[in-house]
Design a protein that fits this description.
The protein has about 475 residues and is mainly alpha-helical. It has 19 helices and 12 strands. Strands 1-2-3 form a 3-stranded parallel sheet. A 3-stranded antiparallel sheet has the order 4-5-8. The chain binds one RNA strand of 76 nucleotides through helix 4, strand 5, strand 7, strand 8 and helix 5.
Length: about 475
RNA sequence: GCCCCCAUCGUCCAGCGGCCGAGGACGCCGCCCUUUCAAGGCGGUAACACGGGUUCGAAUCCCGUUGGGGGUGCCA
């Protein structure tokens, strides 16, 4: 009998044939960036080699899985531009395959029935915090049936080696691998069985997934070799993504849903670029790479070994780069959803595309995400217009010269030619008159007309705002200051 | 507890025995530019966890320690 851990046949597959990979998320929560990176690495790997990307939904846990999570995963993948060649397959629809495999393994003696409850184990090993299964039912020859789980009879000796493209060979002593459950006592197949049966059935050549799966891989290999006489897939275990406490990203604890970033106005190409660089970098050190360049340069063998922190600041940097590189027409299209209901802080009929377009170039170089766009142009569309209280208090009400500046600006703006250079020149003159730098003199005018202490360049903005509204707002500010 | 993985600036990466008195990027700080804010330019800050080996020579190889992480009894 061959050593079940024997891997000598490995390497015969997928060397010349096109690789087949699978991305296999479980629909038990929103899709987070760690899953997105795993999907991306699978995708990059297989695209250059002309292979196939299979999408498989691992929903064997009926308690925790939900179809709504599945649709979220699919739309997030689409948004990122990660397309699939097959699927999505659902493990919940493939149950028969797992049952057949389990039957075969029972017949060949690799699986045995077990009726030990958790309490039984505890009573046999009181106080033992975490022992593995003790093999109690191994030789009891129980008949499989309801109320009895199916366990895999693991070898007592020898070693199972995981050949990993990222980590090299990782060895596990078979003696340390307990007889693990493969089918629950209620008949449901467990993840480890379903995955192996599917990978086998789908002809998967490379299993590229997060490092958290590495410890269960020897079990999968044992199972695989018990089921079929074909080489196991090649494995690649990617370093996990961690939070600021260096713990694995968790759906419950950490707010890192791909959908959230989309809603905040991150571009998929920026997200992709950033994600690709989380755990890998091209040989030449470039950091901004197009999709084609990523496909061309990406190598699993170059993937880092240590966990990476998802740094939103850095993502933001990449997003800004991509945003600024967009042609204006494209920026306009991408920004559109953020300028309309339900996102925009103004009614749809208050929006004026031409006004936005006029300021778009100035907007473009000031935002890191599309979500920041509305705030910059809100002064054009907000109805009614209300200056920010804090800014008004500080830069208008709190400035003894503000009434003078505002009053003179109103007078000067009343009849001049309405172009930016003119407005600037007029206000510069007022600045001189009140003995101030232009930078400080423009502050009260900015707050009165644009509502905020900082934002787009003042004069260009006023040109688009128009003379009437500009004068109205200055009057309103003066009125608010009251007489004297 | 046991098994496994990992270990270079705060963060993400480069480094695969001499080119390293450690390089790039983000962040942070300063300066310049400037109608605010950005963007941009320039400069600065800051790391090989520790201890043993191996070697003429170690961030790079080996061992150990420490630290971090992951997995672990019918989740995936």
């Amino acid at each position: 009998m061959p050593d079940p851990g024997d891997q000598s046949r490995r390497g015969m597959n997928a060397v010349t044939a096109a690789p087949r990979v699978r991305f296999a998320p479980s629909p038990t929560g929103y899709f987070h960036v760690g899953g997105a990176r795993t999907a991306l690495y699978n995708w990059l790997f297989v695209r250059r080699l002309g292979g196939s990307f299979v999408l498989r939904i691992e929903d064997t846990d009926r308690e925790r899985s939900d179809e709504s999570w599945t649709s979220g995963i699919l739309s997030a993948l689409e948004w990122l531009g990660i397309d699939w060649d097959e699927g999505p397959y659902r493990q919940s629809e493939r149950r028969e395959l797992y049952e057949q495999a389990a039957e075969r393994l029972v017949r060949s003696g690799r699986l045995y029935a077990c009726d030990c409850s958790r309490a039984d184990l505890e009573s046999r090993h009181p106080g033992n915090p975490t022992p593995g299964y003790d093999g109690h039912c191994r030789d009891r020859a129980l008949t499989p049936g309801p109320g009895r789980a199916l366990r895999f009879r693991t070898p007592d000796a020898g070693t199972t080696v995981v050949h990993d493209l990222v980590r090299g060979d990782v060895e596990f002593a078979n003696a340390a691998i307990e007889d693990f459950v493969v089918v629950k006592s209620n008949g449901d197949p467990l993840f480890v069985l379903a995955v192996v049966v599917d990978d086998l059935d789908m002809g998967i050549s490379h299993v590229i997934r997060a490092e958290e799966h590495l410890p269960t891989t020897p079990k999968a290999i044992l199972l695989w070799n018990a089921l079929a006489d074909v080489p196991t897939p090649t494995f690649a275990h990617l370093p996990v993504l961690v939070n600021d406490k260096r713990q694995k990203l968790s759906k419950r604890r950490d707010r890192v849903a791909v959908e959230d970033y989309r809603a905040l106005g991150y571009l998929p190409e920026a997200m992709r670029n950033y994600l690709a660089l989380l755990g890998w970098s091209p040989a030449d050190g470039r950091e901004v790479l197009s999709l084609d360049e990523l496909v061309e340069e990406f190598r699993l063998e170059q993937v880092n070994h240590s966990p990476a922190f998802f740094d939103e600041k850095r993502l933001q940097h990449f997003n800004g780069l991509y945003l600024r590189a967009l042609p204006l027409s494209e920026l306009r299209e991408r920004a559109a959803p953020f300028l309309a209901s339900p996102v925009a802080p103004w009614p749809d009929d208050a929006f004026d595309q031409a006004a936005f377009d006029a300021l778009a170039p100035l907007v473009q170089e000031r935002v890191a995400t599309l979500g920041e766009v509305p705030a910059l142009v809100e002064f054009l569309f907000a109805t009614p217009f209300e200056p920010d209280d804090e800014a008004f208090a500080k830069l208008v009400a709190g400035d003894a010269l503000a009434p003078v500046v505002l009053g003179q600006a109103r007078d000067a703006f009343r009849s001049c030619e309405w172009v930016a250079a003119n407005l600037k020149e007029l206000l510069a003159g007022i600045a001189v008159a009140v003995d101030r730098k232009l930078a400080k003199a423009q502050a009260p005018v900015r707050v009165a007309t644009m509502g905020r202490a900082a934002g787009l360049p003042l004069f260009e903005s006023l040109v688009v705002l128009g003379r009437d509204r500009t004068l109205e707002r200055i009057e309103a500010a003066l009125a608010r200051l009251g007489p004297g």
